[in-house]
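Recap for those who missed Tuesday's class. We walked through two folding examples back to back. For each one, the amino acid string is listed first and its predicted structure tokens come directly after. Nothing is annotated here on purpose, so try labeling regions yourself before you check the end of the notes.
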Amino acid sequence: MKQRAQFTFEVEETIVLRQPVSISNVFCRQCGSIVGIALPQTVADLSRISEREIFRLVEAGEIHFIEAKRFMICLNSILMFGLPPDDGASRRPKVGS
């Protein structure tokens, strides 16, 4: 009598795509000056809030945006709103806990 064996292999793959931080300078009508702008994802990476929260703040009129070829966030309005840049402390492991 012949016996059959069946083997199943599962392969897990992780791909990391990194893009350089792209900040441009344009005129923001709401600020009335030339300001730095960045993609919402970049702003989320540089601040302590999520991308979803950034969109909520835009919809509420709390922070400015510029929509040209891409949807960009006014960095001046982020600073005026009081969102400090992330110094990495929020991602550091806590010592002794």
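Example two. Treat it independently of the first, because the proteins are unrelated.
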Amino acid sequence: MPARETLLLALVNIGFNPTFGSERLTIEAHLVDFESDLVGADLYLFFLKRLRDEVRFPNVDALVEQLQKDRVAGLEYYHSQEAQHYRDIAQSLIHDPKPLDL
């Protein structure tokens, strides 16, 4: 598979999915506005900002409503001037994965 050297916005949950009663730690990354096949691709996650703590929602509808708010907040931050520095660092790592002096 050819390398895709593009930054994509992802909303990531690292936790236990308490709304569904899971006791297993998972990492889930939802790529925003992305529809393609990633089977066999190398993916790297660069964390820019923590949006909120993990919450147990009373039902799936409440969870979906919060995820929609998280998507808006994530997009706003990703495109902000504040995040530009971190996007530049991530982009440089994609093209030249040597250790950086941060």
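Answers for example two:
The chain has two helices and two strands.
The chain has one domain: 10-95.
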